[in-house]
Design a protein that fits this description.
The structure is a single chain. Helix content is about 65%, strand content about 5%. By secondary structure, the protein is mainly α. The longest helix has 27 residues. The N and C termini lie far apart (about 80 Å).
């Protein structure tokens, strides 16, 4: 007997299986097997065109004449680009190329679709596509040195070009062999290309990186074992065919392993950012890759006589262990929440948390309306939830950080449930969940920092996507318009949490609708009302949920015209003005190679799933393989806008799911029946071992670490103990901040009569229990132009706060020095200095308040 938790999984699966009457989970017919090579070639070509456009036309030069219009900080963040337009056009062009190539290849091979030699041609195409990508990246690295720390890899480039030429010869020979039935001499020498490429790959890895000895030994053992096993299992009649198939497999292995070393693992690791980025990818990533290849070669044809019930019982330990592992890895003890918030205060003054949730939540808790009265850049749902639940969960930095971490654990557990129900295999689902945690939470981070310091880089920015796909899974298995309406409601709620990622889900919902319509009923159903009714019902539910939620968050201000311009303010500032953007052309080769790899995987998955569904040979997994890959392309917009290499890891949850679905699909389609394999067990164990040995995890205050080491006590650090934050840099900072906060508390004025003009205004308002005076949090970070500074000065005259708090002098090398100087010249004209406390001046409105407003004309 299993646990109630596991028995619940079985009950859900049985209930859903009863209602699943179409598109069974069996492997698709062999008709789609040769398509993967053509898709790979088309995808590689489209991605290379996209990368070329990014490098050639992505950047836009800043106009020097515009310098005087922006603040010093805004000018440093100004990087105008065309990457968004190029990315959207590149997606459309690549999908068009994939469609045309697949259609042409299907038409070309329709007459001889059952010929096994098509698989050899497809394997040659796959090898050619990979070799072409390696040569392209080597050419970029040689001609365009994007990273000053990188040396020109002449050896790697020469090997890449040589292997590309050999790949072309292999493809041409395989095509001639298929076309003219040359099955003797040509097939014999063609079968040796794979071993030769493998030998060159091992030699190149040993030359470029001595640490690759272990990898080379594993690959060599796999090659030897595979060759011996082929001799033993196949007679003389099938040896030539099997040798050719082995050659294509070895070619793909050679290309994949060499591509890793040429692009991600150079002989000399670059310094600074490149070193951290290289460590995030790590030499350790080669070990599970080679283990995966070795495992696939070992048991790809092993048969299992276990009945289905026995296989289900064997997965009971996984269903029990995975939630425990996720909790032990992600959760942070409540005693550490205060110290964690204090470390964020030391790092960046809690800048990211102020913008993401606390600033808008603090204003909403004091009666302000989101969007109109307070700017909420990352959506309104999180500030609204924390503002409403403040009576249950006190509105503090520590509680916000802790509750966010708890939801992160729930999110990844929901991801495991989704993969578990979709794949009907606990081990594959465990591998996907662990891989997603490792990539999203513990990769792409500066030294000695944790991901929760940047909430907009976590799943908090797209908190409902996994629930959205769970609803789609229910729709696919149970049918009915109610499931589609629920998916639309999830999209509307997702837009409330974050506008751009919510729009991604809306697009994915339409894409899933197209796949489902074409796979289940055919395109002729477009002439009927039912499919359009499903789509319109989803749109109506999405609009209703968004309208209700936004009305609550804006306190009814949604009907005013000013609401819409202010609601779209963040989208305009981030996507179209160039503020805070980084062009892809400035990315190092490491980031460029990883970005290209993610694009290829997503496009390949979409092409493969779409082709199978088009040919009426798709399975349930293909629906979600295409939909999740499309969502991954949309989520990559977060990197396309701000193209910092570490941001790639923050969008890798769809990539983890796509990789698992691709490997599971490949495993099931290659086997004649459903057989047992050790592949997912090896992958899951390797992913967990890599995760727990990463430097990022060693510095993470998880439950595992708290059990093994003694955690510091909050009382042992310099802290403002009654105010929730622990971790100021010195006791002097604690005392000075405490003096300013106590003075703010004692001011005889309401919240709207105290204006704090500082980059720490949100922290000071929170500590003193006051609502922010400004619409922005923080004010100095949001004043991007000189015009906005003048508008704020006019607002001060119009609203006439009784007190203004500002620094007496700017800190050294302060990025807001020009903004501070402008306000420090303005305030004495209308206020008189009452006192100075710990470096902050407290100005009070006096007799000079009625002076003429002409004094603050444009400067």
């Amino acid at each position: 007997m299993g646990s109630p938790y596991t028995l619940a999984f079985m009950a859900v699966e049985q209930e859903l299986d009863v209602k699943t009457t179409e598109l069974p989970l069996a492997q698709p017919p062999p008709v789609t097997a040769p398509l993967f090579g053509a898709i790979a070639m088309a995808v590689t070509f489209g991605v290379e065109l996209m990368l070329t456009a990014f490098i050639a036309w992505g950047r836009i030069a800043r106009r020097t004449a515009d310098r005087k219009e922006f603040s010093t900080r805004a000018w440093a963040l100004m990087h105008p680009e065309r990457d968004l337009q190029i990315y959207v056009a590149g997606i459309a062009l690549t999908l068009l190329i994939v469609t045309l190539v697949c259609a042409g290849w299907i038409r070309l091979t329709r007459a001889s679709v059952s010929d096994g030699r098509l698989k050899s041609v497809a394997g040659a195409q796959l090898g050619l596509a990979a070799l072409n990508l390696v040569a392209f990246l080597g050419l970029i690295r040689w001609r365009l040195p994007l990273d000053k720390h990188l040396d020109r890899p002449s050896v790697g480039l020469a090997l890449g070009v040589a292997m590309s030429l050999m790949g072309i010869a292999m493809f041409v020979a395989a095509a001639i062999d298929y076309r003219f039935d040359l099955s003797n001499r040509s097939r014999r020498w063609l079968a040796w290309i794979g071993p030769v490429l493998m030998g060159l790959s091992v030699i190149a890895q040993l030359v470029l990186a001595p640490a690759a000895v272990v990898v080379g030994v594993l690959i060599a053992l796999a090659v030897i074992w595979y060759s011996v096993r082929a001799r033993l299992r196949h007679g003389a009649e099938g040896r030539e065919t099997h040798a050719l198939r082995r050659s294509t497999i070895l070619s793909a292995m050679a290309v994949g392993s060499l591509a890793i070393y040429l692009t991600l693992l150079p002989a000399k690791a670059p310094a600074s950012v490149g070193s951290s980025f290289n460590d995030s990818l790590g030499y350790r990533t080669c070990i599970p890759i080679c283990g995966m290849v070795l495992c696939m070669l070992l048991d790809v044809r092993w048969e299992s006589t276990e009945p289905r019930s026995a296989r289900r019982r064997s997965q009971i330990p996984c269903d029990i262990l995975v939630p425990l592992l996720l909790c032990a890895t992600i959760l942070v003890p409540p005693t550490q929440w205060m110290i964690l918030a204090g470390s964020f205060l030391r790092f960046d003054g809690l800048h990211h948390w102020n913008y993401f949730v606390l600033g808008p939540a603090l204003a909403f808790a004091h009666g302000r309306a989101l969007v109109t009265d307070v700017y909420s850049q990352y959506g309104v749902a999180w500030p609204y939830l924390f503002g409403v639940l403040r009576r249950v969960v006190k509105l503090t930095y520590a509680n916000i950080v802790g509750c966010s971490i708890i939801y992160g654990c729930v999110y990844f557990f929901a991801l495991y449930i989704f993969l578990r129900l979709l794949l009907r295999d606990a081990v594959w689902a465990a591998f996907g969940a662990i891989l997603a945690v490792a990539l999203q939470l513990f990769c792409g981070l500066p030294t000695n920092t944790i991901i929760w310091n940047f909430p907009s880089s976590t799943m908090l920015r797209h908190p409902l996507d996994v629930w959205f796909f769970l609803v789609l899974l229910g729709h696919n298995r149970c049918g009915g318009r109610k499931w589609f309406a629920m998916a639309g409601a999830m999209c509307g709620l997702a837009v409330l949490f974050e506008l751009d990622t919510g729009i991604d889900l809306l697009i994915v919902l339409c894409f899933y609708w197209m796949l489902h319509l074409g796979g289940r009923h055919g395109w002729q159903m477009l002439r009927r009302w039912k499919p359009w009714g499903d789509l319109l019902g989803a749109a109506a539910s999405a609009g209703a949920v968004w309208l209700i939620g936004m009305s609550l968050a804006s306190r009814g201000e949604i009907m005013h015209l000013a609401f819409w311009s202010e609601y779209l303010e963040g989208l305009h500032n981030q996507a179209f003005s160039g503020l805070g953007l980084l062009p892809i052309a400035n990315v190092s080769l490491y980031g460029l190679a990883l970005f290209a790899g993610m694009l290829i995987i997503y496009f390949f998955a979409i092409g493969l799933a779409g082709a199978r569904i088009w040919l009426k040979a798709g399975s349930e997994i293909d629906f979600f393989l295409g939909s999740i890959s499309a969502y991954g392309l949309g989520l990559l917009l977060l990197f396309v806008g701000r193209s910092y290499p570490w941001n790639l890891f923050h969008t890798m949850i769809p990539l983890a799911a796509t990789l698992v679905l691709l490997m599971h699909n490949f495993r099931t389609t290659q086997a004649r029946n459903v057989r047992w394999t050790s592949l997912p067990w090896i992958l899951a164990a390797a992913s967990l071992a890599i995760l727990w040995t990463k430097p990022e995890f060693a510095s993470y205050p998880s439950l595992v670490r708290s059990f093994l080491t003694r955690s510091p006590d909050a009382s042992q650090s310099a802290s403002l103990s009654p105010i929730d934050l622990g971790g100021f840099s010195s006791q002097a900072d604690v005392l000075s901040t405490q003096q300013v906060v106590n003075t703010l508390k004692r001011l005889p004025a309401r919240d709207r009569d105290v204006a704090v003009l500082d980059d720490r205004d949100t922290v000071l308002d929170y500590l003193s229990g006051r609502a922010p005076w400004s619409r922005y949090s923080s004010l100095f970070d949001s004043l991007l132009t000189r015009k906005m500074v003048v508008q704020t000065e006019r607002e001060l005259l119009a609203r006439r706060p009784r007190f203004i708090v500002i620094r007496s002098a700017p800190p050294p090398k302060w990025e807001f020095a020009d903004t501070w100087a402008s306000f420090h010249r303005f305030v004495p004209l209308h206020y008189h200095l009452e006192k100075t406390v710990a470096g902050y001046e407290f100005w009070r409105r006096g007799q000079g308040e009625a002076e003429s407003r002409e004094r603050i004309g444009p400067r």
